[in-house]
Amino acid sequence: CGVFGIFSRDDHDNVALNTYWGLFALQHRGQESAGIAVTDGTVMDIQRGMGLVNEVFRHGVPGMPAHIAIGHVRYSTTGSSLLRNTQPLLVTYSGGHISLSHNGNLTNARELRIELEQQGSVFQTSIDSEVIVNLISRSNKATVEERIMESLSRVKGAYCLTVMTEDKLIGVRDPQGFRPLCIGRLHDGWVLASESCALDTIGAELIRDVEPGEMVVIDDTGLHSLSLAPSDRRKALCVFEYIYFARPDSVIDRQSVHQARFSMGRQLAKESGFKADIVISVPDSGTTAALGFSCESGIPFAEGLLKNRYIGRTFIQPEQKKRDTSVRLKLNAVSSVVKGKSVIMVDDSIVRGTTSGKIVRMLKEAGAVKVHMCVSSPPIGFPCFYGIDTAVRKELIAASKQVEDIRQFIGADSLYYLSLEGLMRAMPALRPDAMCYACFNSDYPCATPSGAETGGAE
Ligand code: 5GP
Ligand code: SF4
Ligand code: MG
């Protein structure tokens, strides 16, 4: 998912419209639903719907004059893809109104929800984020900051939040820092966004990232930083943000995503030693690494596969059925580029292996004589419980097959996966021991949901 928030008293900074643009820039983080909530200091208005940002706000954004807004784009990792599961969530409680957007997955939401239901709480959605809202509204603490702190001391897992009250914009990043959240300045106002590309889009300046375990509170007196209750769990920024999920023009925790991906490609060229006539990418997610591969190896990069611009991230649609039919709609081989050539095809990851197999076949049908596949991440053998939909374990091809069997399954002439050490080397601005690599090495940085071993995240 993607989250956004803005606080501005400047009448020229239409907060709802800026949120719309921000969400548009974060569209790659979720395409199932979108929403914007705004406040003028007294009441709140909200608009949510299923679909892409431009579809949901086809008839405009919330029009009420406002000085705070938050937004959300969703891709479902818990709870079904339904209208009632769209965010931001908005509730009225004894302390006033509160609206909340969440990116990440809580790992103890089920237990907390059962406990809250037994105490009489009613839930309107099936998403884990509603547990946080429920805890906040039930808290007896005096201030909203304290209520949020108290609530978050009970939840485990991954969360980046933007929260709006009548007079405050609050951003929170969980103590392990799984997901990104950054702070920007727009004129005299403040912006929070999952990725810095959203700040660029609205002309805001990136100030810094919200630190793991930090809560930033923005109101008429400025930005204040508070710390969540200390955690003994290690920092665990998601490496998959750099491999696949984030946009290459974003900078997360001072590491450029583009540079990380480009270096992964260079590293891949060094490690694989593969030679061929051309290097091609599976667009768009494989392109930056393919350019790095080409740069390192001296093998020319060519556009061997073309992506239909009008189609989204097919993988992100929840059901397998939709994914299967959409590969050919999404990609086509450029016969004049690949015909008679040996080809190195670079992609960011292999999850189920179904897309990759279809693409290899497509290239062969278009006349490629050899297809050597290079993957800019290690084999994904374990499911993610922290907000990326890398499938349940039984669907992960690397959970049950060795590299040679995977090569045969996808029909490639060779197959090479980037090593974990090579991956770490590609991100010099980050500390390797402060990251999560659990989908590659099963070193889960915080407890996985109970009963998840076989089923995985919903
Ligand atoms: P597969 O060959 O495993 O069926 O598909 C691999 C492709 O899925 C890669 O091109 C990768 O970029 C893409 N992909 C799209 N969305 C996701 C996602 O949410 N997680 C992962 N791991 N890969 C995704
Ligand atoms: Fe990211 Fe993988 Fe960790 Fe999930 S398990 S948070 S995808 S590195
Ligand atoms: Mg891809």
From TrEMBL:
Residues 1-221 form the Glutamine amidotransferase type-2 domain. In the C-terminal section; belongs to the purine/pyrimidine phosphoribosyltransferase family. PANTHER family: AMIDOPHOSPHORIBOSYLTRANSFERASE. [4Fe-4S] cluster binds at residues 238, 384, 436, 439. The active site is at 1 (nucleophile). One of its GO terms (molecular function) is magnesium ion binding. Its EC number is 2.4.2.14. Pathway: Purine metabolism; IMP biosynthesis via de novo pathway; N(1)-(5-phospho-D-ribosyl)glycinamide from 5-phospho-alpha-D-ribose 1-diphosphate: step 1/2. The keyword Nucleotide-binding does not apply. This is Amidophosphoribosyltransferase. The gene is purF. Binds 1 Mg(2+) ion per subunit. Keywords: 4Fe-4S, Glutamine amidotransferase, Glycosyltransferase, Iron, Iron-sulfur, Magnesium, Metal-binding, Purine biosynthesis, Transferase. The keyword Protein biosynthesis does not apply. Mg(2+) binds at residues 285, 347-348. Catalyzes the formation of phosphoribosylamine from phosphoribosylpyrophosphate (PRPP) and glutamine. It catalyses: 5-phospho-beta-D-ribosylamine + L-glutamate + diphosphate = 5-phospho-alpha-D-ribose 1-diphosphate + L-glutamine + H2O. Its cofactor is Mg(2+); [4Fe-4S] cluster. One of its GO terms (biological process) is purine nucleobase biosynthetic process. CDD domains: GPATase_N, PRTases_typeI. It comes from Acetonema longum DSM 6540.
